[in-house]
């Protein structure tokens, strides 16, 4: 099901691993630096440098964090970064400094808040605008700034307003793109699953044809099978049953060991209840090794290898019942082996 309320994401504009996305990040950071370098001419280096670092980090956060909407911790940081940087640098502005040095920090602040809109945090962006406006108006009220200077510096209002209108226009198109992308992903997943199932079926049919084809041809021709051929049919039937009941246990070594044990008269049963799900691959190999060792030692009786259901302490058991006594081998999810008689 497609979530129709998902916000417009930056990764819808640029692929998450696309070089274009990182180029955009570099350009955005360079723009921040170009605007804020002017503060070094009018404010102490500590204040100008602090504002620059704060804004650069906020720009990186708003662009790079992959989750949409932007997480609240990141949202709060980005929304507060601009007003804080303005409060750090604006006290050193003078009304006589001219327009060239007037509130340059407001421009990158507007860009940060506009990006916040694109990351699905419209209300937070406007709270950031309100914070920036509060800082500007407060500084203007307690300094010699002219009122029109403060009005000209309220650029975040125009920028965030324009991006908000843009979002309201493109939102329906963006939702359609999301639905198309989700549908394409579902179709690709279905096709991949069908291809994998077809490949597995072809593999199994090929293996069956190699081992059972000659015998089936003789049976179809009405030729009476010899005792050795009937024994081969019995062993083959048991192997095919193993592949259906315990596919995770069937390997070349275990199949060969089971065939040899059955040829000696041992009753071999393989069962798989799904316990290998979630355990390391080496634990599965340890279970198979324990089963192969037990089958190699068995000369009579029965050997039952069972993979237990998920969630049990023991991932698998190997029970060997022989005239001389029974032996039980248990392997836990950590790969530890316990043998009891």
Would you write up a description of this structure?
The protein is of the alpha+beta class. The protein has 2 domains: 10-186; 229-340, no CATH class. It has helices at residues 19-36, 39-42, 45-64, 72-89, 106-118, 122-141, 147-152, 155-220, 227-245, 252-263, 281-297; strands at 267-272, 302-307, 314-322, 325-332, 337-340. A hairpin with a 6-residue loop joins strand 2 and strand 3 (314-322). Helix 4 (72-89) packs parallel to helix 6.
SSE layout and pairing:
Elements: H1 19-36, H2 39-42, H3 45-64, H4 72-89, H5 106-118, H6 122-141, H7 147-152, H8 155-220, H9 227-245, H10 252-263, E1 267-272, H11 281-297, E2 302-307, E3 314-322, E4 325-332, E5 337-340
Parallel strand pairs: 1-2
Antiparallel strand pairs: 2-3, 3-4, 4-5
Query: The biggest beta sheet, please?
Result: 5 strands, mixed
Strand content: 5-15%
**What sequence of helices (H) and strands (E) makes up the elements?**
HHHHHHHHHHEHEEEE
Structural class: alpha+beta
Rounded radius of gyration (Å): 36 Å
User: If strands are numbered along the chain, what order do they take across the biggest sheet?
Assistant: 1-2-3-4-5
Total separate domains: 2
Give the oligomer, counting copies of the same chain as homo and different chains as hetero.
Answer: single chain
Overall pLDDT confidence: 80
**How many strand units?**
5
What is the terminal separation in angstroms? 54 Å
Tell me the helix content. Answer: 55-70%
Total DSSP helices: 11
Q: Which consecutive residue ranges, at least 5 long each, have pLDDT under 50?
A: 1-9, 95-101
Shape annotation: elongated
């Amino acid at each position: 099901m497609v979530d129709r309320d998902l916000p417009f994401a930056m990764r819808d504009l640029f692929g998450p691993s696309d070089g274009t996305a990182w180029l955009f990040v570099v350009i955005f950071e360079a723009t921040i630096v170009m605007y804020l370098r002017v503060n070094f001419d009018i404010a102490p280096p500590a204040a100008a440098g602090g504002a620059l670092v704060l804004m650069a980090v906020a720009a990186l956060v708003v662009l790079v964090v992959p989750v949409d909407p932007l997480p609240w911790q990141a949202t709060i940081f980005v929304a507060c970064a601009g007003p804080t940087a303005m409060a750090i640098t604006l006290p050193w502005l003078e009304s006589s400094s001219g327009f060239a040095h007037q509130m340059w920090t407001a421009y990158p602040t507007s860009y940060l808040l506009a990006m916040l809109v694109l990351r699905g945090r419209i209300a937070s962006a406007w709270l950031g605008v309100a914070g920036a406006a509060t800082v500007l108006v407060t500084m203007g009220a307690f300094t010699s700034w002219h009122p029109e200077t403060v009005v000209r510096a309220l650029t975040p209002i125009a920028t965030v307003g324009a991006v908000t209108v843009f979002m309201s226009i493109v939102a329906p198109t963006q939702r359609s793109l999301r639905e198309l992308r989700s549908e394409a992903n579902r179709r690709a997943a279905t096709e991949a699953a069908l291809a994998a199932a077809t490949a597995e079926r072809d593999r199994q049919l090929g293996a069956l044809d190699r081992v059972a084809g000659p015998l089936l041809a003789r049976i179809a021709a009405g030729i009476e099978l010899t005792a050795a051929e009937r024994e081969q049919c019995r062993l083959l039937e048991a192997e095919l049953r193993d592949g259906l009941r315990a596919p995770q246990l069937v390997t070349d070594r275990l199949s060969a060991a089971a065939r040899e044990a059955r040829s000696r008269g041992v009753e071999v049963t393989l069962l798989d209840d799904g316990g290998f799900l979630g355990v390391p691959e080496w634990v599965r190999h340890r279970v198979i090794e324990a089963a192969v060792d037990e089958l190699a030692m068995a000369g009579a009786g029965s050997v039952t290898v069972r993979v237990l259901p998920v969630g049990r302490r023991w991932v698998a058991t190997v029970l060997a019942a022989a005239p001389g006594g029974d032996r039980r081998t248990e392997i836990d999810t950590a790969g530890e082996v316990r043998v009891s008689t």
